[in-house]
Fold this protein.
Amino acid sequence: MGDASIDRAYLSLIAAQVHAYSPELHAEIQRALSTGDAGDIAIARAKVRKWEAADKLNVAATQSDTTDGPAVGFRWRLDGNIIQETMQPAAWRMVNYLWQQQDRSATFDSLKVPVYEDAEHIADADAFGSLRRAANGYFEAHGVPWRVGIKKTVVSLTAAE
């Protein structure tokens, strides 16, 4: 079996898993599989590798932790229990990164790679505001005592009052 066949088989297997976390990547995988073009498949496989590497960093950051905070699979651990509903993935990546910072805050620029996996991504107050609303909505819905705030170009995670 050649590399392209292996990549095609792998993309077929991972497509369902990716769908829950990255609909955009899922759509790209489906396009590559439908065209059957070796170049499209190779590009999709490279993007999956990048996604897997970022996800492994997120998993490594939270897997050994049994205290409250970010949990594997875009979830949150509260009172030692993992909330089964997932947070919007980009919002989770933002909160996960903030959680790991000593002061639980970061600038827009420093969040681009952890959240969007792209240092050149155009991310402004509107983009981070949308992620803030998603994270805070999740927190409020599940009684998580944390809130995301934005002041100028800094995003912070603070205990809810």
In short: The helical segments are 3-21, 23-35, 38-63, 89-100, 108-116, 125-142.
